[in-house]
Amino acid sequence: MVSEITPDLVRHLGVLARIQLDDHEVERLTGQLSAIVDNIAKVSEVATPDVPATSHPIPLENVFRPDVVGGMLTVEQVLQNAPDATQDRFKVTAILGEEQ
Fold first, then answer.
1. In the prediction, which pLDDT does 29 show?
2. What is the DSSP letter of 85?
3. How much is the pLDDT for 100?
4. Sign of the Cα pseudo-torsion (39, 41, 44, 46, in order)
5. Would residue 93 count as lying in a domain?
6. What pLDDT was estimated at residue 46?
7. What's the average pLDDT block by block, 10 residues per block, for the chain (100 residues)?
8. Whole-number Å distance between alpha carbons of 24 and 31
9. Cβ contact 100:94 at 8 Å
10. Distance between CA 86 and CA 53 in Å, rounded?
11. How far from each other are the two terminal CA atoms of the chain, in whole angstroms?
12. 88 within domain boundaries
């Protein structure tokens, strides 16, 4: 049972999401959301209990590369473009309003 996506429903969803939508956006989103709901309904029609749900069409494998230690930067290289540095460290403004 698919409910129809109406402009009033889109406006209501906009209010719930605290998104201000103009008439053009409501019209565009009404069509887009209707197409999405229709496509989900089509998929639901062909989905059967004997077909397992999947997030990808092919199984995923670990795609990470092995960790290899590479060349390291010197302190001077790291700090060369820093706007301000003190005692081999980046110097930044306190963000919590407390001096340390």
1. 96
2. E
3. 53
4. negative
5. no
6. 80
7. 83 95 96 93 81 78 86 93 91 73
8. 11
9. yes
10. 56
11. 62
12. no
Which residue segment(s) compose the domain that 27 sits in? 7-46
Residue whose pair of structure tokens reads 């019209």 in the numeric block? 27
Tokens representing residue 24 in the block? 């053009």
- The structure tokens 């129809």 sit at 4
Q: State which amino acid sits at residue 18.
A: R
pLDDT score at 71: 92
Which CATH number covers residue 36? 1.10.20
Q: Indicate the SS3 state at residue 90.
A: strand
25 within a domain of the structure (yes/no): yes
Structural domains of the chain, count: 1
pLDDT of residue 77: 94
Could you tell me if residue 60 is inside a domain? no
Helix (H, G, I), strand (E, B) or coil at 19: coil
Other Cβ atoms closer than 10 A to 10 = 21
pLDDT at 1: 46
Which pair of tokens denotes residue 47?
A: 């989905």
